């Protein structure tokens, strides 16, 4: 399937998804949100894909936010629908069975940072710049940023970012734990692929159950989260990969996990 604003490239078990509106710094308009949602739905049903990398097209931006020109035309009711469309996409990415690595190649602002925050792991180019500048436009963040940012960096730091609208660089994002690693611009994609390959070589069901426990647990109290963890732990014991993984360890050999 081809899209107007999204490119999907497959490298063995890895899907590289690129938001491709470089002239608008990959801003998220309705069409881009809808296309990305379709891509995510297709990936959810594609068991040959074990890891997804999400990045932006061009030299400057990962995603510079929701599309300001399009939002300018919206009534309050249409704005609510737009916000919900973005939120739904972020939730869809978060609940995708496969891990998603954001390769943040430039500006990650507003809806762009919200998109990165819906991913499991964030890798950044040293040229990347971050921020939630919505209040400069007279609006709050609307694609989950007021909720995910405090959960990721704590409410004090999140409040400063959301209330001052100040942009910050990749090293600062790294210091606050918002991005996992920072690389020279030209190394980012290769490093993202290397991490994706590493994850893709692990037992896929165990990877999916781990992702699920992390996200489900984030919305539960500790005891309920541990109950869920015990359930997914037990579930993994039904898999062939569990048997193969234990056997390989005990026999000091290697195994290739089959995802079943
Ligand atoms: N929406 C629509 N178009 C955008 C855009 C956006 N978020 N960001 C950039 N563009 C467009 C610009 O309008 C410009 O288009 P033209 O060439 O047709 O004029 C093109 O991309 C290049 O941008 P600039 O000329 O502005 O590039 P720059 O290097 O001078 O500045 C920038 C880069 C600092 C990222 C600047 O573009 C900028 O501030 N962009 C807006 C960032 C922003 O406010 N994002 C939040 C949006 S609101 C939101 O996301 C709400 C939400 O939570 C759901």
From TrEMBL:
InterPro entries, A to Z: ClpP/crotonase-like_dom_sf, Enoyl-CoA_hyd/isom_CS, Enoyl-CoA_hydra/iso, Enoyl-CoA_hydra_C
Catalytic activity: a short-chain (3S)-3-hydroxyacyl-CoA = a short-chain (2E)-enoyl-CoA + H2O
The protein's enzyme class: lyase
Pathway: Lipid metabolism; butanoate metabolism
Subunit structure: Homotetramer.
Family to which this protein belongs: Belongs to the enoyl-CoA hydratase/isomerase family.
Name of the protein this chain belongs to: short-chain-enoyl-CoA hydratase
């Amino acid at each position: 399937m081809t899209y107007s604003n999204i490119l999907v490239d497959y490298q063995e078990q890895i899907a590289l998804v690129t938001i491709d509106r470089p002239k608008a710094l990959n801003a998220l308009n309705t069409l881009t949100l809808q296309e990305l949602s379709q891509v995510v739905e297709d990936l959810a049903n594609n068991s040959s894909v074990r890891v997804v990398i999400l990045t932006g097209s061009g030299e400057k931006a990962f995603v510079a936010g929701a599309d300001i020109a399009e939002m300018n035309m919206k009534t309050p009711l249409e704005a609510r629908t737009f916000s919900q469309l973005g939120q739904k996409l972020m939730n869809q990415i978060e609940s995708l069975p496969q891990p998603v690595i954001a390769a943040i190649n430039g500006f990650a602002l507003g809806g762009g940072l919200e998109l990165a925050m819906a991913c499991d792991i964030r890798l950044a180019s040293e040229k990347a710049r971050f921020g939630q500048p919505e209040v400069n436009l007279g609006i709050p963040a609307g694609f989950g940023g007021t909720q995910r940012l405090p959960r990721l960096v704590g409410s004090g730091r999140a409040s400063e970012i959301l209330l001052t609208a100040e942009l910050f660089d990749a090293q600062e994002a790294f210091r606050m734990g918002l991005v996992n690693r920072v690389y020279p611009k030209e190394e980012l994609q290769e490093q993202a692929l290397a991490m994706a390959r590493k994850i893709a070589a692990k037992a896929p069901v165990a990877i999916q159950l781990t992702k699920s426990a992390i996200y489900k647990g984030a919305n539960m109290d500790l005891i309920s989260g541990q109950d869920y963890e015990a359930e997914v732990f037990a579930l993994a014991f039904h898999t062939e990969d569990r048997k193969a993984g234990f056997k390989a360890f005990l026999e000091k050999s290697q195994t290739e996990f089959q995802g079943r």
